[in-house]
Hints:
By secondary structure, chain A is mainly alpha-helical.
Amino acid sequence: MTTTTPALSGGRRRRPGDKIFSGTATASAVLILLILAGVGLFLLAEAYPAIVAPADEISGGRGLVLYLWPILFGTVLTSVIAMVLAVPVAVGIALFISHYAPRRLSQALGYVVDLLAAIPSIVYGFWGVQVFALALVPLYQWLAENLGWVPLFAGPASTTGRTILTASLVLAVMILPIISALSREVFLQTPRLHEEAAMALGATRWEMIKYAVIPYGRSGVISASMLGLGRALGETMAVTLVLSVSGGVSFNLINTGNPATIAADIALNFPEATGLRLSTLIAAGLLLFVLTFAVNFAARALVTRQKGGST
Amino acid sequence: MRSSTSRAARAALATTSAAALALALAACSPSNETDGGGAGGSDGGSTAAGSDADLAGTINGAGASTQQAAFQAWAVNFQDAYGTTVNYDPVGSGSGREQFLSGGVDFAGSDAYLTDEELAQADERCTDGAIDLPVYVSPIAIAYNLEGVDDLQLSPAVLAGIMAQAITTWDDPAIAELNPDAELPSTPITPVNRSDDSGTTENFTEYLDATAPDAWTYGVVETWPVAGGEAAQGTSGVVQAITNGSGTIGYADASQLGDLPAATIQVGEEYVGPTPEAAAAILDNSTRVEGRPEGDIAIDLDRTTEESGTYPIVLVSYQIACKGYDDPQVGETVAALIGYTTSEEGQQAAAEQAGSAPISEDLRSDIMTSLELVTSS
């Protein structure tokens, strides 16, 4: 191992192509950091007036923290529900395509799933509010009547279906293709030898997947899920259209009063916002920026630990 | 064969782009050369309209999104008649007034008239201060969706109770008392409100606050204050939510209701629906604000009016112009534009495009008198 390294780097002079390539790659890496820092600084500078403003001047009159708390809650709640619903299904789709489906079917199915990712979010929004939400109304009424003792379904059920559960379901559909497409690629990378070894030891197909494919693909699936979560956290148009935002923090998933999400709140109020109102919205943007950053950071830590553990 | 067609195509493309360039140049030129010697189609249009052609090529306005739809019609018609391009940027009332006062735009559209502080700023921006002219009136309807009820009558207090979520079912005695002939079901009421900050919400809450202060305790606000109702984005979102739900009721621009019925509102002894005539009548039945500059027509709407045939839930939007501009040509153009939007023709165009209520003849003649001040310098 140690003998090859000096031969590559120190031995002879580097060729110009090598220099140019390493130069452009470094420049790209620096550029992305600069852009990120620029966005962060912009948000901080523009949000500053709202951060230092007295509480009664913030929209709602109760200060920035109490303004941001419900929308932060709404953002996290919709995203978490969407993840809980989407990840198992996405992994199932990925495993079916990579290990169960006949070759021809798996290709066709792969295309269809990828196609879902190409639908613009505003189309998801229209579909969500005009078709999906209305179709869910009977279900919500049933839930309120029969499972009303569960706080999540306390009701009274919305008659338009524009609830936090509908928004989460729409988000789940939107992040499904991202997670399943990436997971599929990771599962396909499982070394053939691992799979055959598992089979040779007498494992059934499910056991082979459980002991060979899933451990190998776990970190990939986590990365894919985090990409999906990123989209769910920041999704604007679909949530703006689908969700009826007229409430505070509530775990009631099927009534009309729901907290907004950060992105939807900004989209709704930006057109008429000036002065301090604008700063407040930008402060909300800053919060979303920090939240996304924290989530990505946590995901990185998780992936690193998984990699260390599995090998 | 193949190469020749492609060459021909390229030549055609070159001609087209050259023509487009020439056209763009021609479109730009009238703003600079106002003596109108060799300009093309736009100049011809203005002579056809009988105007003295001494208008600026482009004027810019910004402000209330309320007037955006109307301006889509106004800008096209005004350009056809006078050859002047009108740009209207719907940035919101507050920011439109700001841009106007800082000299960024030639006129502003605003759902509120200038404050005293802003009037003082206007003295610096304009030769002789600025004036507010109420040119756009839009009735706000109370739309509802309740099976079996085609004719709903509401008093201000009951409407406020419903929107404040104090009255929660349709067979509530308070509603039944006002509608003795209707068969009201026991369906729960879902009040629908705007989820975005909106001038419609502000005008609606102003009405509730003025007419039913006991039932409506939330004051006059731009952001809907009552939690737990159905909230939707924009007028279209509200109308959609009312249509899709059942037992729903909400407020929206009267022109955008589609097939939804609108409730009639108690005014004095009678119940009035959101017709254009009834909506325009409120401007004539309200008092002008006192102590304003000469020519300014700021109106404090008398929401509690008991005048027959008046519908008090309306949104009024102003056009704000200088009395005298540094460049007299800009003044002429702004006066011509507001003169057009105020004219019977302009009001009709707005009514067709945006569903506004044409203003009365009396108000029109007052605005026309004020407009003479805009061109003075």
